[in-house]
Write a structure and sequence with these properties.
The chain has 426 residues and is of the alpha/beta class. The chain has helices at residues 34-63, 77-82, 104-116, 127-142, 154-158, 162-167, 183-187, 212-224, 240-243, 247-251, 277-289, 298-310, 315-335, 361-375, 407-419, and strands spanning 66-67, 120-124, 146-150, 170-175, 195-199, 228-233, 256-260, 271-275, 342-344, 352-357, 377-378, 385-388, 391-397. The longest helix has 30 residues, at 34-63. It is globular and about 65 Å long. The model is unreliable at 1-34 (pLDDT under 50).
Length: 426
């Protein structure tokens, strides 16, 4: 999805709230007045405290014997390079390395097209580029540069207006509500549009998905308006449990689909655009024009193939266990006496979900870090976002490491975390 620089950790595709990331440092105020200097000093101190807390959090989560997820991109280079030890299991390493998209990159493209049931697929270095190219191609075919999307979708929130600034597209927001768009909203939207983009799941609303019936109705509503449908499927891989459908059936609803290789599959980066062969051929031409036809991509392509081999089959297990974790968290927080707490969705749609608590973000962040440092159990491993006075949220991810946690483990960790909050009972 985007490729703006992520602050503090090496995020890929520029997800500004990517796992383990914190909000970036504030722009320094103008200097030259006493007020500006004082404000700058205060901001600098806050920035320094935030940076130290982030460093403590990452160090504590790396060293903690127990965590709900251990995401590769936060690990040291030695660990990341070790991923390629399995490369011989997924590709013949005696083959010549790729040059400008052939070889192992073509093998990855074929694998993705096969998994999604599409005619073809094209590898892209980032999701931002893949989606801009896809929707630019569709604009040429439909004659309309207007893209209907959700107000919380990744291009609207995290990509610095890339659609309009770079690709000449005009995004319009079908809704800004923290849920998926409805068929009625699509059918009754008051402007014409050539393409409807649906983010599955909608990350900034809580990794939420519609029901299968709702999704098909939304797609049908777009078709009634003679619009094409594009899935922003950065996390599409983990949607099969919620929909109760295989990947190829989900992808078949759309005219084109984008998928990511690092958000769920732990690859080094990269993305793919899948769809009709004629669209993919055109997309490859635009990939070259956008600077995405990279000389060699074999490390990233191999890591993606490894992810498809290792992680993809395990995603349903992670989703199922995330529901156990979410229920236990809700129970543990209630039993510990938190005045109000929200696990959203109550039953996670994927293996990721949100937790909302009635405290300031910095208070929650400090309590979470101390708990990880002192107990060796990293329950809340991500940063906390302020969402209003005395209200903050964090995202919880469940991966292979989280399968070791029982419901009792989660409840106990939640109780320990709450004891470190102001006003908690001893």
């Amino acid at each position: 999805m985007g490729d703006t620089a992520e602050n503090g950790t090496a995020a890929q595709d520029g997800d500004e709230r990517q796992t383990g990331a914190d909000p970036g440092p504030a722009r320094e105020p103008a200097q030259g007045t006493g007020q500006g200097t004082a404000q700058g000093t205060g901001q600098g101190a806050d920035q320094e405290r935030g940076q130290k807390l982030r460093e403590r959090r990452i160090a504590a989560c790396r060293s903690a014997p127990r965590a709900l997820a251990r995401l590769g991109f936060l690990g040291p280079l030695r660990e990341r390079l070790a991923l390629l030890d399995a490369a011989a299991d997924v590709y013949d390493l005696d083959e010549t390395a790729d040059l400008y998209g052939n070889g192992v990159v073509e093998a990855l493209e074929e694998r993705v097209a096969g998994l999604l049931g599409t005619e073809a697929a094209a590898f892209f270095p980032t999701g931002t580029m893949a989606q801009q190219v896809a929707l630019r191609c569709w604009a040429g075919r439909t004659g309309s540069p207007v893209v209907a999307l959700h107000g919380l979708s990744h291009p609207e929130v995290h990509e610095r207006n890339a659609f309009s600034r770079v690709s000449g597209l005009r995004p319009v927001r079908v809704t800004g509500e923290p849920r998926m768009p409805t068929a009625a909203e699509v059918r009754d939207f008051d402007e014409p549009f050539g393409a409807l983009m649906l983010e599955l799941p909608l990350r900034d609303a809580g990794f939420v998905l519609p029901t299968w019936e709702e999704l098909t109705e939304v797609v049908d509503a777009a078709r009634e308006r003679e619009a094409v449908v594009h899935f922003d499927g950065a996390r599409l891989w983990e949607c099969t449990v919620h929909f109760g459908r295989p990947l190829e059936e989900i992808a078949a609803l759309a005219d084109s689909v984008y998928v990511s290789f690092y958000k769920s599959l732990d690859g080094f980066g990269g993305a793919a655009l899948a769809g009709p062969a004629t669209l993919v051929d055109e997309a490859k031409a635009w990939r070259h024009r956008y600077g995405g036809n990279v000389f060699q991509q074999f490390p990233t392509a191999l890591s993606a193939l490894i992810g498809l081999e290792r992680e993809l089959p395990r995603l349903p297990e992670y989703v199922t266990h995330a529901r156990v974790v979410a229920a236990a968290l809700r129970e543990g927080l209630a039993e510990a006496g938190v005045p109000w707490a929200r696990v959203h969705p109550e039953v996670p749609h994927t293996h990721d979900f949100q937790v909302w608590l009635p405290y300031e973000a910095d208070v929650l962040a400090e309590a979470a870090v101390r708990a990880a440092e002192e107990t060796g159990a990293a329950l809340f491993a991500n940063h906390w976002d302020p969402k209003g006075p005395g209200l903050a949220l964090t995202e919880v991810y469940v991966r292979a490491a989280g399968l070791e946690w029982t419901a009792d483990d989660v409840r106990a960790a939640a109780a320990d975390f709450v004891r470190r909050l102001p006003g908690a009972k001893a």
